[in-house]
Amino acid sequence: MAQIVIASHLGSGRVVFLAKGSTEGSVAWGGLIETAEVAADDDRANVLLALAEADVAARNEVMDPYLIDVEEEGGQLRPTKSREAIRCLGPTIRQDLGKQAEGAEA
């Protein structure tokens, strides 16, 4: 199962994702799930989580990074669990709010 790292941005409280291309000493966080670095196996997922945890200790920009399972659906990443889908995309009853509304505007 593919996985990504998710965390909470301390300045805004928004959900962020460990961004593609993050490396030791050069970690970036993106606000959209499409920006996330995807780990295809557990070994890579553990490396990404370790990068995120080291970034928390070094910069204190995000908090509580953890791995979530994702799958590709229609060319887009989607969390496999409802809780994470809501956290990543926003309210389920008001599609005009949250990140799904921001994506519709783009």
Provide key terms for this protein.
five-stranded antiparallel beta sheet, 28% strand, single chain, alpha+beta, 106 residues
Tell me the major beta sheet. Answer: 5 strands, antiparallel
What sort of overall outline do the alpha carbons produce when their principal axes are compared? globular
Share of helix, binned: 25-40%
Mean pLDDT: 88
Give the ordered list of helices and strands. EEEHEEHH
Distance between the termini: 29 Å
Q: Any low-confidence stretches, pLDDT <50, length ≥5? A: none
- Order of strands in the sheet with the most strands? 3-2-1-4-5
Strand content: 25-35%
The number of E-state strands comes to 5
Number of helices: 3
What is the count of structural domains? 1
Q: What do these coordinates show?
A:
With 106 residues, the protein is an alpha+beta fold. It has one domain. It contains 3 helices and 5 strands, in the order E-E-E-H-E-E-H-H. It has helices at residues 42-59, 82-89, 98-105; strands at residues 2-9, 15-18, 29-30, 62-73, 76-79. It has a 5-stranded antiparallel beta sheet with strand order 3-2-1-4-5, with helices on one face. Strand 4 (62-73) and strand 5 (76-79) form a beta hairpin. It is globular and about 40 Å long. The N and C termini lie far apart (29 Å). The mean pLDDT is 88.
